[in-house]
Amino acid sequence: MLAIGLGEGAALAAAFVWAFSTLIYKRFSHHLSPFELNVNKGIIASSLMVICLVMMQDTQYPQTLHSWGWLVVSGIVGIAIGDSAYFAALRNIGPARTLVIESLAPAMAGVLNILLLGVYLSKTAWLGIAVTTAGVMLAIKPSKSQPVLDKKHYFLGVLFALTAAFCQASGMVLSKGALNNESIGSLWAALIRLGSGTLAVALLVSVLKQHSLSKALTLKGTDGKHWLFMAIFLGTFMGLWLQLLSVNHTDPAIAQTIFATAPLMVMSFGLLRKEPMTKTMLCGGALALFGVFLLLRG
């Protein structure tokens, strides 16, 4: 019998809204730099979270400096460093290769969960992580048609992608450390994490001459702002809230594995739009879904 609880359900929902929002984000990549987009989406999503907290009269914020520390570090590591490394990987080796390496994040989360929190998964859960990771890597692996890269860009891209995967996994486990320490509302945890990461990126943008903090805040010269707001609402506001809700109710490695199926959902949207799919992609997707089945059983 499948053990689909609140945590697993929230993780599936988070993967879905992230997958949908990425299709919208793509159209704005030529208007804003990755850092500028990161700042803008962080500020808007943080504002939405504050409004929701006021309306809900949620006072379940962290009571100890220890919990604040876990969440702030989680935001800096997972959002500021992790997202920056992810964007750098995309520039150097492209999305296909980056996503393959990002698939290592669930296994990293499992190891960090043991080292930092002393929590061990069952053998069935570890098998599910391995099968899901293999399926995602098979489904999104770069094809022979991918351009050949010079050694410098390839090395840097792989290094950035590994850093992104590690930071993503670390951010989830660090968040779990705070949520284990005391009872904290998932929206409060998401706000502290996002706010910390956004502030760190904004400080970086303000000192880098090739980026504009003013443009990040005003979106000057950017068309279709309502579509960008929709992507931010779904992918950042709802997505991050659902991620923290998931981590609050299940193991970070399990949550991270379910998050890793988001690229498969992007592929599914492409299938609905009658985009070409290879047998390898379909087989990889089926294998990943079987891995999630094993994970939930474990």
The helix count comes to 12
Q: Tally of extended strands? A: 0
CA-based gyration radius: 18 Å
Strand content is: under 5%
**Gap between N and C termini:** 10 Å
Shape: globular
Helix content: over 70%
Order of helices and strands: HHHHHHHHHHHH
Features of the shown structure:
mainly alpha; 12 helices
Explain what you see.
This protein is an all-alpha fold. The chain has twelve helices and no strands. It has helices at 6-25, 34-56, 65-102, 105-117, 123-140, 151-181, 186-207, 213-218, 225-249, 252-259, 262-272, 279-297. α2 crosses α9 (225-249) and α3 (65-102) crosses α7 (186-207).
Summarize this entry quickly.
With 298 residues, the protein is mainly alpha-helical.
Furnish the topology, listing elements before pairings.
Elements: H1 6-25, H2 34-56, H3 65-102, H4 105-117, H5 123-140, H6 151-181, H7 186-207, H8 213-218, H9 225-249, H10 252-259, H11 262-272, H12 279-297
